[in-house]
Predict the structure.
Amino acid sequence: MQTLTNKRILLGITGGIAAYKAAELVRRFQDQGAEVQVVMTKGATEFITPLTLQALSNHPVHLDLLNTETESAMGHIELARWADLIIVAPATADFIARMALGRGDDLLTTLCLAAECRIAIAPAMNQAMWAKQATQENCQHLLDRNISIFGPEEGLQACGETGVGRLLDIDEIVIEAASLFSSNLLTGVKVLITAGPTREAIDPVRYISNHSSGKQGFALAQAALEAGAIVTLVSGPTNLDPPDRATLVPIISATQMYDAVMAEVADTDIFIGVAAVADYRPAKVQTQKIKKNPAASNKSMTLDLVENPDIIAAVANSEKRPFTVGFAAETDHLIEYARKKLEQKNLDVIVANNVADTAIGFNSDNNQTTVLWENHVEELPMMSKSNISIRIIELISERFNLASQ
Ligand code: CTP
């Protein structure tokens, strides 16, 4: 089973003899379904070449903080946002000290400062350096800031000494990294998610739809799975692979989505409506392709539309109502409109996002959202859709647990 499916891992390599093991780590992360990009400190390049890591990761290796070429390809802030996890392996004593001080004197430390995602380090150094009070105090500072430390382990070292300081076994690092994403917050909870667009047929070749990519809904399904939930994903047409352990119910139109959701709702604990459901559909689907009518005097044609069922409102008002979470895609008056939908659709939580901003909108990999419930408003900073999903699932499970008490 792949445990890091669709996760974006930024692997930082610093200058120690164990740097050669990072090549293997890239492969193991990829085996678990992760996409990996590599950042190397100057010292690391003395131990293993960027070319090796570039070939293995299929991405250019990031080396410099102030490089006009790499900055234009992917700036350091963008790179920090891209990552779901930054893991520094091996992390030298010097790197740990610079990180503990909150320095930003090279690309890797700057990325760690700029990142909103999880950060982990796997220290590797001589046993005496590891045992030194300075190193231990620095590690304690990092732990206090919620940075995870994997290893080191005991054994024979490159310097010929034996003791604690060896890089943790590569497979163990992968297991520890995967465990950072599983929270058990929703163990056994049944979660039903709608995602993607719907398509409303006009005739056999045409339809009305929207720009929804499905990315946010699929990322939420993945995050719910990682939290231990049993997930059913009712999705309109997308180009995405569904998360491994989710039950996918593919649909095309809003009425099909409605039927699929209503068939499941009585057996659902949490419903999350992420789909961009078409509000209207053609009143009549033509059985044959509509032909152009050059004789029409006003050069126009009119489509008669009828309203689609409001799926989430139906769920929120169903007899055995699940905890119901909506999404509000707005181009203006974000909070005001989202709050209105929260109340009018009888939702427990609503997640609002601004789809007018192309940096975070429908097809983007990033998102910036505001989560609203009752009298609360919580803004989440811009992050990857995968990372923001973990935060949203944390918030939802908090509210769900309170509501179920
Ligand atoms: N939704 C739904 N069924 C519909 C329309 C919307 O379940 N027929 C859900 C969406 O999945 C989302 C929430 O309602 O969780 C808000 O969707 P949105 O498109 O932002 O709102 P609408 O109700 O369609 O209002 P408007 O288009 O006027 O903004």
